[in-house]
């Protein structure tokens, strides 16, 4: 029996995880967000209405689903309050079902200032400049503030004062003003008074739900190729976006995960800088960009587009022990005469390389493509596998054979019902 399912991205994010999580919330009692911050953006289209979630788990749209922001998340409280109020304006109740870990690291104003300056002067890696990296940096350096610190005003004043000594040394070198101590303390104490009813020990909550047989979904943000350890470093995020992040960021043990679903687009996209061997700069790239409406839900930045890369996919399947694949946005490829898939790389000596390697070596490699015939018919909204065009079915079968694991789900549009289930882990 499947009770605990993990949903993660297999690319550089933007794979369509939000829709798939939303579909699976019909079967679960709780959804856990285990890493990242408000740099993520999950777009849900429900009855034609767009909902964008950045911090709150995608299960919030369903009634009676408990939504948990666990200890692995770095939380910007102002962004969370804004998101709560946006949902409440749309008549979606939040406060009775949202639970937030008291051990979350808090994103402070100095993190955002530091992020902006570092991106501009030093790194230029395409960060969302929301303070995520500096907050994780403080967490690892053991100077980060956690939510529990916000609940003790005297302790908070001491800790912020000590941290500001460090940042007031760093920030002037970055041409920023000193931060106002008293205003910062007062502001954050008031914010967490408003959030207080939603705070709890989420590790105990998750384990109590598990022990009583409740079904739990662990929702990843970003994609596995952005993982701090396993991604295309240094063009990565600051957290563990792979299945290892579930264990660290929620407190669940590895033996309590029953099924891992990897989400991938029928092609590949990436936002910001970093290697992308199958990126397209021709008419096909523009076709995918416009047909797929490839703009970031959180940043609004245009996404880079390219063909599906099975070298990357095999690597991600391996490090995550993925059980099954969900292919999204199949309909975006409608109308293409030919579709290309990267099945390996070759080096300057013509030697075949079919495993993921570091980005320095990657610069020397050339993708090897296998071309398949496209299809003219529309796949938009098709919800029966046998009704897909013949060549679309062959495309799915080819990917499945190359990867060696089942494709369980195919998404053919943004709505819940525009989905094909070849296998449902909860059945």
TrEMBL record:
Main location: cytoplasm
Positions that bind substrate: 297-303
Subunit and interaction comment: Homodimer.
Alphabetized PANTHER family for the sequence: ADENYLOSUCCINATE SYNTHETASE (PTHR11846)
GO terms for MF: adenylosuccinate synthase activity; GTP binding; magnesium ion binding
Pfam family, one: Adenylsucc_synt
Listed name of the protein: Adenylosuccinate synthetase
